[in-house]
Design goal:
The chain has 379 residues and is an all-alpha fold. It has two domains: 143 residues, Farnesyl Diphosphate Synthase; 173 residues, Farnesyl Diphosphate Synthase, CATH 1.10.600. The protein has 15 helices and two strands. A two-stranded antiparallel sheet has the order 1-2. Strand 1 and strand 2 form a beta hairpin. Helix 4 packs antiparallel against helix 5 and helix 12 packs antiparallel against helix 13. The two termini are 23 Å apart. Keywords: Magnesium, Metal-binding, Transferase. Its cofactor is Mg(2+). GO terms for molecular function: (2E,6E)-farnesyl diphosphate synthase activity; dimethylallyltranstransferase activity; metal ion binding. This is Terpene synthase.
Length: 379
């Protein structure tokens, strides 16, 4: 039930902007980016990942008399936190991306990039602490194309729970250490804590079986589970660049909230319609009866016979029932509905970005909107 983010690379405010998106149109035409949308961010994150691991290892070094303790946590980090594919690292690449987008060019020093990377890795580590528990709640066997942490040989359920707490508390310790003295340190800590809290609340929807009649009124809260992806990332980038005025953060919320919600739409759509996606291929939302953009849209559009098929088969837990629901989705042409919603999204976001305060460079935000609309943030 946990998000698997999907995004990719950009241009700095101090370097020539990639003309990926024309703010005067909603065009889907694009220039190929073989290096990947987040290539530079991934390179920078990889440079400072060992320092993140060292910070967390140092935090427990006073307990080195416990056999295997110091050796255990680098293994935990390498298995659950980091990855070579930016698809699985949106909570790390996005804060760094947005920081670089809004920071003044003369302040993009090596030291400031290092601090931004460590802040980003801390955010990713916070997300991971919840993913570990989420896999237990979901009884998920696989995460990132390998056994979920609690399913790994030699990892007990008891240790998994402690590992989750270690990552969460350790991330906050790294933040307080690496952002010490920064004027917005407490703002970032408060923002990240709030995003994690909202994520936990949203997860209740996935572990509580809901009636289909409740889906429509609760779908917005389903989308809230994705708020951390863009809202926490974009606004922490502002704070790290010492942008803390209310007006700018309110404008950023107008950008980040619909971005996060459309991110969830893309997740829901890809999990069902992308045959070779990095999602499971068994339509888990349909099989497990989860609320999603697809089912709520289908319920609004369906005739009585189609609605009956959904009501009788959604969440039954078997592939045959899922195929019947999928046929309704096909009959309703939900792919076309998704395409129209994407066009609307592009127009809405273009207007929002164009109304940003003068202080905020617009092109990097136009670029990332376009990549999300194309569902190619990470390709």
């Amino acid at each position: 039930m946990f998000l698997l983010p999907r995004l990719k690379n950009f241009t700095r405010s101090n370097s020539p902007a990639r003309k990926l998106f024309s703010p005067k149109s909603n065009s889907f035409s694009s220039t190929p980016h073989d290096d990947g949308f987040f290539k530079h961010e991934m390179d920078e994150l990889k440079t400072y990942y060992p320092l993140m691991v060292q910070d967390l290892t140092d935090a427990i070094s006073q307990y080195k008399q416990f056999p295997g303790l110091l050796e255990r946590f680098p293994v935990l980090m390498d298995y659950t936190v980091t990855h070579d594919d930016p698809y699985f690292l949106s909570s790390a690449v996005l804060p760094l991306y947005f920081y670089k987008a809004v920071e003044e060019s003369d302040k993009l020093t090596e030291e400031n990039i290092k601090r931004a990377c460590l802040m980003s890795w801390a955010y990713r580590t916070l997300e991971t602490s919840q993913i570990i528990v989420d896999d237990i709640l979901d009884k998920s066997e696989v995460r990132y194309n390998k056994p979920a942490w609690y399913k790994k040989d030699g990892v007990s359920m008891e240790l998994t729970i402690l590992d989750s707490h270690y990552l969460a508390t350790g991330a906050y310790m790294v933040l307080t250490k690496r952002l010490a003295g920064h004027p917005c340190c407490l703002d970032i800590l408060d923002l990240y804590a709030e995003e994690m809290f909202v994520m936990i609340i949203a997860q209740y929807m996935d572990i509580k079986k809901l009636d289909l009649k409740d889906f429509q009124k609760l779908v917005r809260h389903r989308f809230d589970k994705a708020l951390y992806v863009f809202n926490g990332s974009a606004r922490s980038g502002l704070y790290l660049a010492n942008v803390r005025d209310r007006e700018t953060h309110d404008c950023m919320k107008k950008f980040s909230v619909p971005m996060s919600r459309f991110f969830q739409v893309q997740n829901d759509f890809s999990g069902v319609f992308e045959e070779e996606s990095k999602f499971q291929n068994s339509c888990p939302d349909i099989v497990n009866g989860r609320n999603s953009w697809l089912v709520t849209t289908a319920l609004k559009m369906a005739n009585p016979a189609q609605r009956k098929v959904i009501e009788e088969n959604y969440g039954n837990g078997d592939a045959e029932s899922a195929r019947k629901v999928m046929q309704v989705y096909e009959d309703l042409k939900l792919k076309d509905v998704h395409d129209r919603r994407t066009e609307e999204f592009l127009g809405e976001m273009r207007e929002i970005v164009e109304n940003f305060p003068e202080r905020i460079p617009k092109q990097p935000f136009h670029d990332i909107v376009r990549q999300l609309a194309l569902n190619k943030l990470y390709s």
